[in-house]
Amino acid sequence: MVELLPLSDIEPQAVEDLLDAAFGSDRFGRTAYRIRQGMDAVPALSFAAVEDGVLIGTIQCWPVAHHAADGTATPVVMVGPVAVRPDVQRGGHGRALMVRMLEAAETEADSALMMIGDPEYYGRFFGFTADATGKWNLPGPYEKHRLLARAVNGHGLPTDAGMIGPR
């Protein structure tokens, strides 16, 4: 049976090992890592999937911001990575982690959510779209159609031009 636990209950090295297995040890050069560099994950929105005492998946969320040209910084929570151990992928564990995070976000999120991900999947199952992100920029390469966002917990999304980066 799979348990969904707070990520803070999991040994940090186990999380790093899972992320290496899911994304490779070169993952730190990706744009998503640049955005959240030096930040700590949001404990109330970050979870682990554990089966028989073994970590099989994680979801992390990060406090970032949309920085407009006029200097206004609007808080946003960056979702991801959603990682599942390669040998148990396609078992619904990533989806379960997303559902748990979204349930928590409805009461715990201090801002809207954003992510870099597959628009068909995250739109269809979780309500993320690129509707508000067309004028947003990231500090590195990315595909515009994969920059997604979702309002949550009464927090709207900025739609003006701006750079996503640390809060």
Describe, in plain words, how this protein is organized in 3D:
It is a single chain. The protein is of the alpha+beta class. It has one domain: Gcn5-related N-acetyltransferase (GNAT) (Aminopeptidase), CATH 3.40.630. The protein is 25% helix and 32% strand. Strands 1, 2, 3, 4, 5, 6, 7 and 8 form an 8-stranded mixed beta sheet that branches.
Main features:
167 residues, 8-stranded mixed beta sheet, Aminopeptidase
Number of strands: 8
CATH third-tier fold name: Aminopeptidase
Mean pLDDT: 95
* Separation, N- and C-terminal Cα atoms: 37 Å
Helix content: 10-25%
The major β-sheet equals: 8 strands, mixed
Question: What is the global morphology?
Answer: globular
Strand % is 25-35%
The assigned structural class equals: alpha+beta
CATH class: Alpha Beta
**Stretches where pLDDT falls below 50 for ≥5 residues?**
none
CATH superfamily: Gcn5-related N-acetyltransferase (GNAT)
Number of helices: 4
Task: Break the fold down into its secondary structure elements and pairings.
Blueprint: E1 2-6, H1 12-23, H2 31-35, E2 47-51, E3 54-68, E4 73-84, H3 93-108, E5 112-116, H4 119-126, E6 136-137, E7 147-150, E8 162-166
